[in-house]
What we know:
The complex is a heterodimer. Chain A contains three helices and 28 strands. By secondary structure, chain A is mostly beta strands. The longest helix of chain A has 21 residues, at 2-22. Mean pLDDT of chain A is 90; it is low at 12-25. Helix content of chain B is 21%, strand content 37%. Chain B has helices spanning 2-28, 109-115, 173-176, and strands at residues 31-41, 52-59, 70-79, 89-93, 103-106, 124-127, 133-135, 141-144, 153-160, 163-170. Chain B is globular, with a radius of gyration of 19 Å.
Amino acid sequence: MTFRRYTFVLALALLATFTVKAQNGQNGYWAPTGQTHEKLYINSGDGDVNNLTIVDVPTMKIIKKMTIAKHPHGVASPKSQDVLYIASETEGTVTKIDTVRDEIVEVYGGMGVEPQESDITPDGRFLYQPSYAGYWNVFDTQKKEIVAFIHTLGIGHNTLVDPQGHFAYLFPIKGGVGHWRRPSLGLPRTQPNEVTVVDITKNHQVVGTIPVGDGPRPPIMSADGKRIYMDVDRFMGFLVIDTAARKVISKAALTLTADEQASSADGHAHGIAIGNGGKEVWTNDTRHDTTFAFDVTVDPPKQIARIPVGKGPYWIVPSQDGMTMFVACPASDEMVVVDVATKKEKTRFKFPPGDRPTRMIDLAVPVRTQTSSR
Amino acid sequence: MFRRRFLGVGLMLAGFSRRAWAQLASASQGFSPLTHPVKIPLESVATPWHTVPFVAEAVTPADADKPGRRVVLNGVLFRKAAGEGSSALSALCVTCPHEQCQVDIVTDETRLAKMTKGAAQNPLFQCGCHFSVFDAMDDGAWISGVAYRGLFRFRVGAVSDGTVHITEVEEEALSVV
């Protein structure tokens, strides 16, 4: 009887471990096996030196600051999480970092005009690197060359690769007058209100689109790959997308006061993350210095908390166990750490004035001394 | 003699008319009245570049996409030069025209030098999200970055009895903010 009980408890513990692992990674669904060291990588958008801050998550201490190419934007890491690719918006490069040693391995040029938020296949082979000029480069990390070019119209901006490495989802932002002033390769510009779906296994061919009604904004995918939660232009909240059906199935609106509504009529939420075992989705109200939590086990998602953070919260990522949220607030040069269970602030990191901490990624870095050959 | 007087009066009238027309055009050009004037004590902006935040309200005009919509605007009033008149003051909307993030004034010389590669002569505003830079001395004029224009301006109507009256806002702000 005692043995049975122990077996049962052990099985439950193992199951819990799998549940936790299943929601890991930047996109909420992958992590390496074996012993890992959880680290948070924070890019300072306007910092020239020491613009990559590395935080030891268990102790919440800064363990290293590195200088990488200016205006870091895209961050992507494969399932092994032993490497990290960071795009530089102003230099058109991608820097490969060995996350075990936290050292720069290589810098790749020719990554397009103003490279933006990328993602990578789970095996680390293909990096989908968007460019502000309206396209995605697919960079083969083995051959170290661009093997495909995908023109989406709009402005290449955000990317997701599904947990199976089968489909890539490209999220061009809509843009407007201000955006057109920025570099263009002369490609036709439209304002697509859609997500482009690419079959990675079919030589990176576009196989479909998902109409979303307005300009796509930051997205995140559920651990099973069945749902995309996405911020969208002119909506203070987020959309729920069924990836199999390739359509929007629900909307979650932030509950705002009358004054907040009157000061954000054409605004949108920015930055989105999945927490608490996939049960919650968090998104930022940049205009009102607030982060919102929603229960996504119900349809439509139900707002369960609003949490004051720093100024202009812009990016949000979960810890590996999904029970801590890291909220970057570039307008006040802070990163705020929030406990998912209590919805209370745990601590905050202050950055030098003008550093503008923005994009982040939380990694479970394998504990070993040798780097990957990738 | 008569001709000279006629010419003089004529020129004077022409100059006056031109000036009056310019003032009239300027008064109505792209500005909308606030629902209630914002009143701020003059003494609170005695120190140059010290920003005093305020909240203003307006309604979108009849020909707007969404007419009659209430709009709440966040602004700052600050002194950019010595003097008592309204021309020494500037009132700007702190919502960036690009993506509606908040802008903040930067007075630190090291940061200013970095933002303008050493060319800054006075404090600037910078957007917290995408780092567009605006000139505080030139009423929020665009200097660099992705914003498509300068900051939206409020009109400082009058300074009377030690109080600054802010009465209007650029109409375009009502469709962007």
